[in-house]
Design a protein that fits this description.
Layout: H1 2-7, H2 57-68, H3 100-109, E1 122-127, E2 133-138, E3 145-150, E4 155-159, E5 167-171, E6 178-183, E7 189-194, E8 198-203, E9 208-214, E10 219-224, E11 231-236, E12 241-245, E13 250-255, E14 262-267, E15 273-278, E16 290-294, E17 299-300, E18 312-315, E19 320-323, E20 325-326, E21 329-330, E22 338-342, E23 345-352, E24 355-360, E25 373-374, E26 401-404, E27 410-415, E28 419-424, E29 431-437, E30 449-451, E31 457-460, E32 466-471, E33 477-482, E34 488-493, E35 501-505, E36 509-513
Antiparallel strand pairs: 1-36, 2-3, 3-4, 4-5, 6-7, 7-8, 8-9, 10-11, 11-12, 12-13, 14-15, 15-16, 16-17, 18-19, 20-21, 22-23, 23-24, 24-25, 26-27, 27-28, 28-29, 30-31, 31-32, 32-33, 34-35, 35-36
């Protein structure tokens, strides 16, 4: 043992020789060839030395080297479900990467009225969504940007004509499928909604979420008010329609009528009314499929009853029997009435499907002349002709999309009966029975339709994966473009270029046609 100690020690050792012999075998150091100076911690025992244990010169030298090596990075926490935080910024949203000819066309076409043209070819194919794409929307302030909402819980912002990276932003703020997306009139912000019962306002330039609008229902559709860019309308699965103010994040108005799930909403040209489409498949009340609402009074304008002034009427204890000469026909209405007294004279107040009637009657139950009608909410005299008691759309089919004409007082509704119907947007909101667009198919898909910039073309998706372009005036099919193997969900015209449309499909593809 003395020879072994002398072999592993010399005069330069500062530690004295141990005074007792260890009762176990010393640890054999690793082979010199296996020693890696870059990572000395891999070959060094990490447990604390036993007091009194003999430490060889080689182990002391290895310990000195380890003390000079900086501490390695900490081992990450192995979470079975890690939260991957990725930057939503993938490319540029600037128009500097756009080809000069496209950029010149965008700048020249701004502010100029152009006749719509029919796209001829597939120009750009955009792929990022892994599931169905539900909605598309072009930016009006930055016409080279397109937003898409998908069932894969993402919102994509595309720099469509970029020569480098076409997908500029990829937002994953929703916790469920995204149903709709709209560009904010304020500029580079998008508003999206979905199955996570929320609407979210996102700053596209910074890539951050700025506001969340929580609801108690799945939010299926959103639309900014044309008169006030701080106001937007939302519709959801419980049939509630809410008007939100993004400045304070609160509900301004709520429109409730016991409707089914809201499928689409659209503001009229004057911005004083909006149109709602709801799912009536769960009930037998098909008259509520399409309703026109007054925004300020929060009441429906359609589905109301029309009565003329100057009725001859009498009242009894059970109801009112009103009769009037209506183009040679007698119009009879029965409803419950309530009796009040004003200045000692009986005042009859009856409400018939949201409109109230006020008039004085004599005390001896005689017939009354000069029957006067009043508006139940404004307390003003009603016009000589208020809406006739026919609903806007009486067929038992849902309408997944409604769109107003950009210039004329009318709107169209995409029906699950495989056609597009056209209606007047002014009272009495009549259906045009002599014109419809019926070459495409819907087949239960949320197929959307849109007008061209000049309003002369009407474009629609189809369940057969094609794009159908109709002449608005004649309702004739102008062109059919076969695009996808699965259903074509949404088709939108470019807000500046009259010959460009964007489309999306049920399999997640987004396409640009020129």
């Amino acid at each position: 043992m003395d020879l072994l100690c002398n072999a592993y020690s010399n005069s330069s050792d500062e530690e004295p020789e141990p005074k007792f012999k260890p009762n176990y075998k010393p640890v054999i150091p690793p082979h010199p060839k296996r020693f890696k100076p870059e990572t000395p911690s891999q070959n060094l025992r990490t447990e604390a030395p036993v007091p009194g244990r003999y430490i060889s010169k080689r182990e002391r030298a290895l310990s000195a080297q380890l003390s000079q090596v900086p501490n390695p990075a900490p081992t990450p926490n192995l979470n079975p479900n890690p939260t991957v935080v990725t930057s939503p910024v993938l490319g540029s949203i600037s128009d500097s990467e756009i080809p000069p000819d496209v950029l010149s066309s965008l700048r020249q076409a701004k502010g100029r009225a152009s006749l719509s043209q029919i796209p001829q070819r597939l120009a750009v194919d955009l792929r990022s969504h892994t599931k169905a794409v539900n909605a598309l929307d072009w930016s009006r302030s930055h016409a080279h940007l397109l937003a898409s909402a998908g069932m894969d819980q993402t919102v994509c912002v595309w720099n469509v004509w970029s020569r480098d990276q076409k997908i500029a932003r990829l937002f994953k703020y929703h916790n469920a499928a995204v149903k709709d997306v709209k560009w904010s009139p304020h500029g580079l912000s998008v508003l999206s909604c979905g199955y996570d019962c929320s609407s979210r306002l996102i700053d596209v330039e910074k890539g951050i979420e700025t506001q969340i609008f929580k609801e108690d229902q799945v939010v299926g559709v959103i639309k900014f008010c044309p008169d006030n860019s701080n106001i937007f309308l939302s519709g959801g699965s419980k049939g509630c329609l809410r008007l939100w103010d993004i400045r304070n994040g609160k509900v301004v108005c709520e429109y409730v009528r016991g409707l089914g799930p809201i499928l689409d909403v659209e503001f009229t040209i004057n911005g004083k009314q909006f149109i709602s489409s709801s799912d009536v498949s769960g009930s037998n009340v098909s008259e509520n499929s399409i309703i026109i609402w007054d925004i300020s009074r929060q009441v429906p304008l359609s589905n109301q009853h029309a009565l003329r002034i100057c009725f001859k009427a009498r009242y009894d204890t059970f109801g009112l029997h009103a009769m009037s000469s209506f183009s040679g026909l007698y119009f009879v209405v029965y409803y419950h009435v309530h009796m009040y007294f004003a200045r000692g004279v009986p005042l009859v107040w009856g409400i018939l499907n949201a409109y109230a009637l006020k008039y004085y009657v004599s005390q001896n139950n005689t017939l009354v002349q000069n029957l006067t009608f009043w508006d139940a909410w404004s307390e003003a005299k009603a016009p000589s002709q208020v809406p006739y008691p026919l609903p806007v759309y009486v067929e038992a089919y849902t309408c997944p999309s409604v769109r107003c004409h950009p210039f004329e007082p009318c709107f169209v509704a995409q029906s699950n009966a495989n056609y597009i119907a056209i209606f007047s947007s002014s009272p009495p909101f009549r259906l045009d029975k002599y014109r419809r667009y019926e070459s495409h198919g819907v087949s239960g898909f949320p197929i959307k339709c849109n007008f061209s910039l000049d309003g002369e073309k009407l474009v629609s998706g189809s369940s057969d994966g094609s794009i159908y372009i109709y002449n608005y005036r004649s309702s004739e099919l102008v062109r059919k473009i076969k695009v996808y193997e699965q259903a074509c969900i949404d088709v939108v015209y470019h807000p500046v270029l009259p010959n460009v449309i964007a489309s999306c499909s049920w399999n997640g593809d987004v396409s640009i046609f020129e």
